Amino acid sequence: MLTVVFFGKTGAGKSSTLNALFGLALATDPAVACTSKPQVTLLDPDEDSGLPDEPVRVVDMPGIAESLRAEDLYQPYYEKWVPQADSLVWVTQADTRAYKRDQLYLMKLLPLLRPGLQLIVALNRVDDLGVDEGDESFNTALRRPSAAQLAVLPEKISDVYGVFKEILGEAVPFDRSHVVPYTARYGWGLEKLKIAILKGVER
Hints:
CATH class: Alpha Beta
Strand order of the largest sheet: 2-3-1-4-5-6
Radius of gyration: 16 Å
C-alpha cells in the first residue's frame, strides 16, 4: 500500500486540497481547526481515478502552528505517520511571505524523513497571489491566473523553493519542480499537483 501524508500550517488548505484532488468530504473551516487527529482515507484505483494499480492511503494531518500546546499533542501523530510516507505533501500558501513556521517545523521533522521520501510543496491560493496595483487579478470566470499573476509566479516558486531547500539540504531529493502552484478553490493546477504526488508514490 502506498501512503501520501498531507502536512502544513493550519488554515493553509490541506483538507480543501484533499477534497478537490480526490473527491473527499473532509470538514473545512477558514477560521477553526477541523483536523485534530489524522484523517486516513483509502483510495481504491479504478480506470478513471488516475491512481496507481495498488490502493493509496492518504493521511490528512493536524495543522502546525495552531498553538504550542496543540503541537505537543500532535507530535506523536507526526512521529507515527511521517516515517510511513512514500510522499509527503507540504501545503503552504502563495499569498504570504511568512514561512518561518514552515521552516521551524520542518527542522523538527528532519530526523523522521527517510532518504527515499518524495516531498512536494503544494503552493495553494495562487488565486490570492498579489500583483501590482492596476494589474488584473485572478480570472474567476475562466478559473485561471491573470497574466500579471503568471508573470510573478516563477519568482514566487523560486522563493519558496529556497525557503524549503535551506532546511532540507540533501536530506531528501528536492528541486524546484517539487514546488507545485495551484488553487484548491478554483481547481487551477490541481491536475499537475495530482500527477506530481502520484508520480512519486508509483513503484
